[in-house]
Amino acid sequence: MMMISYLIRLIILAAFAALGSSSNNCPHGPKIRFPFWLKDQQHHPEHSSGYPGFGLSCTQTDDTVLELLFPPKASLLSQTKLLFSVKFVIKEIDYKLQSLLVSTVDGCLPALLPNIDLFASPFHFQDAYGQYDEYTYFNCSTTRSDYYLNHIHCLSTPSYQVYAVQSSIEAFSIPLFSCTKMFQIPSVPFALFHFIPTLLELV
Ligand SMILES: *[C@@H]1O[C@H](CO)[C@@H](O)[C@H](O)[C@H]1NC(C)=O
Q1: Could you confirm whether the keyword Mitochondrion appears in this record (predicted)?
Q2: 98 and 48 fall within a common domain
């Protein structure tokens, strides 16, 4: 009897040790707690399931990544049902405010904006001003540095620069003789072009 209870204690202790040693953050990342969980844990595959959409993973450079899948805009649903993946490198998690500090976005989010429904996700870009604006994209053959032009590096090439401008500004002030209009996107959170690192907020 003594032996059995000793064994049970040992097993429980071993289980706690295993849980404790299973790293629940990436080496350079924030502590990962509920509702987040760490994917791809080789040693504890049984723990690799959790709240869907809240799985984080570690990159080869030990950063913490959240992958969000955005559905296509309603107007494109007849053409594609594929989800668009965007990966965010997470610097900090504020569990009290339910927000994530994003240091970089992997991939070209501004290029996806015409196609994705940015609001069909449990995470929203925090916007200190509550400002959502329509933006117009321009493709320019000259480099410009006006403060209201947001340079989209990942869409630009050495000979053509792509800029996004709040459509309300564009309407009256820009002599864009060397630029052609590409498209307009309604309801873009101000933070998306103006602040990276930025905050993603759980809603
Ligand atoms: C910008 O315009 C040039 C010339 O028409 C074109 O080659 C290039 O692909 C355009 N860039 C984008 C991102 O559409």
Answers
A1: no
A2: yes
Do both 64 and 101 map to the same domain?
yes
Prediction pTM value: 0.75
Q: What residues make up the domain containing 174? A: 132-187
Regarding the beta carbon of 152 and ligand 1, being less than 6 Å apart is answered no
Classify 191 as helix, strand or coil: helix
Domain count, the chain: 2
Segments of the chain scoring below 50 in pLDDT: 7, 9-22, 43, 45
Residue 140: closest CA among 90, 178, 110 = 178
CB 179 near ligand 1, within 6 Å:
no
Question: Do 42 and 90 have their domain in common?
Answer: yes
Q: For residues 154 and 121, is the Cβ–Cβ distance under 8 A?
A: no
